[in-house]
Design brief:
Blueprint: E1 2-8, H1 13-22, E2 29-35, E3 42-43, E4 58-59, E5 62-71, H2 76-87, E6 95-101, H3 115-118, H4 120-124
Antiparallel strand pairs: 1-5, 1-6, 2-5, 3-4
Helix pairs in contact: 1-2
């Protein structure tokens, strides 16, 4: 099993979710996030905004979406490829995807572990 963490543009969330469902992803956790990368934030001087020190105001953290998905290792590459393809715009700030091995997963309600804990079918039975 692998934990896939994707940081993407907020505008891409619905499209990424729809494509993940098409390839069989049965669940994900999505949270709002703020961060910076190479762009180091956005200066807003062009809007005429100034801080208390009368310097151009800048936003140091850019709004992002963080998606976390635990999947069976045999579909990890397909999930990563789908996220990358769908979230890609070609512009700076598209995001990143990280893959982390997961040693154990437990469904709290039933005690099912690992692959069984990830399966939607058993959860509904």
């Amino acid at each position: 099993m692998d934990l896939i963490i994707a940081i993407i543009q907020p505008s891409k969330l619905d499209e990424v979710k729809d494509e993940l469902v098409k390839i069989g992803v049965q669940g994900a956790t999505v949270t709002g996030a703020k961060g910076f990368g190479r762009q180091k934030g956005r200066p807003l001087a062009f809007l005429g905004l100034q801080g208390f020190d009368r310097q151009p105001f800048s936003v140091d953290f850019i709004p992002k979406i963080k998606i976390e998905i635990v999947v069976s290792s045999d579909i990890t590459d397909a999930v990563v490829d789908t996220i990358v393809k769908t979230a890609h715009s070609g512009k700076i700030g598209d995001g990143k995807v990280f893959v982390i091995p997961v040693k154990r997963a437990v469904r709290i309600r039933t005690g099912e572990e690992n692959e069984e804990a990830l399966s939607l079918e058993e959860a509904l039975a």
